[in-house]
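Sanity check

After download, print the first record. It should look like this:
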Amino acid sequence: MGDEEKKSSGAGIPQAIFVEDVDSFMAQPENGGNAEKVLRKLDEQHNKYKFMELNLLAKKKRLKNQMPDLEKSLDMIHLLKKRKAEASEEKIMTEFLLSEQLYSKAVIKPSDTVYLWLGANVMLEYSLDDAAELLTKNIETAKKQEASVEQDLDFLRDQFTTTEVNMARVYNWDVKRRQAESGST
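Expected structure tokens:
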């Protein structure tokens, strides 16, 4: 808002600058002493932060939902590797998800490969070791992204607070200014 250099978080969330001296802030050429104009800008900034928060919360939810699926897949890979190491020819009876809330029974024969959904209707065949490596990497990446989203949400909460305090300070400045004008007439 001022001449100070604006900072941002890792996600590109701009930092709200705290208005320490409201009189000098309102005297800046871009503000021109017009409290309504400044309050509109601050409200717009606040709404942008709300929009960013909704996007981050959706991303956090998506990551949280993804983690159990990745971990279940990795557990299955470990089970298949264990069976392979034991040289067991015994078939595994299991249920797998066909679509949301629709499961089917399956018999899994011993195998050296598995098929993994990569998204966008893409499925690829992997060796058990490669599949375990890929899933482990995906779990680590998801955990890092989740931590990053959490940091961005914390940063965003600070920006909400700063913007709300600035709005209150500008509003109070305008009330005092109007009282002074009405008292002098």
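If your output differs, re-run the checksum step. Summary of this record's structure: The chain is about 60% helix and 15% strand.
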